[in-house]
Predict the structure.
Amino acid sequence: MCKYDYQCKLCGFKIDVKAEYKDMQDVVLKVSSDCPNLNPVTKEPIVLDAMYELMVPKEKSAVMQLREFHNYNFYDETKEYILRR
């Protein structure tokens, strides 16, 4: 399991992300935060195809689509963190 937390530059709330492999390709993300804008993504874990996320352009990324819940673009930070692991 990988854990990542940071303080959002937009709202100031702390955002915690835990990622764990479900199988050889899928990753389960659990997001927690007190930010009310993130309530839709904190209620249930998010399952992502990790290989797809690393290979597709930003515009097609499921992580980028999570941005609709919060105006802060954490795509670049999240992808950089994944690549460092």
User: Anything to note?
Assistant: The first strand starts at residue 2 and ends at 7. The mean pLDDT is 80. Residues 2-84 form one domain. The first helix runs from residue 39 to 42.
